UniProtKB/TrEMBL annotation:
It holds the Pfam family Gly_zipper. Keywords: Membrane, Transmembrane, Transmembrane helix. Coiled coil: none annotated. The chain crosses the membrane at residues 102-119, 125-142. Residues 102-142 form the Glycine zipper-like domain. This is Glycine zipper-like domain-containing protein. InterPro entries: Gly_zipper-like_dom. It comes from Amphibacillus indicireducens. It comes from the Bacteria.
Amino acid sequence: MGNTRADELKLKLNELSNSIEPKLSKQLDLEKCERNINRLAEFSSECDACLQNFSDFENHLSQLLNQKESINKQDIKTHTKVIRQIETHLTDQHDLVSSGHYTGIYMSIGLSIGLLFGLVIFDNIGFGLPIGLAIGLAIGAGKDEEAKKKGKVI
Ligand SMILES: [Zn+2]
């Protein structure tokens, strides 16, 4: 795929972003959309699924642009689903992670361990939770930073 097609799609995305309320733009997570587009374009010459996802996203975006005055909850839901599907493919097949991926994972691990330790050692959940959370956050943020350096974050 030439870069032109990706550029055109990003122009459309920009057009949508300029013609809707900032709040809606945030709900649609248009910044993330642009990153997804870049990745799909990057892999589409060697991956059919990426090319397919790209084409699907083109259609989806045209549809959103056509009805930009009347984007409703259902449309946002569909949009979120489309984005998630693209991300799932990128993470499963292309070894990428979404932004904040590790922080999310390690935070929940930290919380569970903190809960357990709080109960077992201190006999007090309130003791373990913040410690577990802090450790989880630190490890997760470090791993996210590392992934970012490697260019693995979508
Ligand atoms: Zn792919």
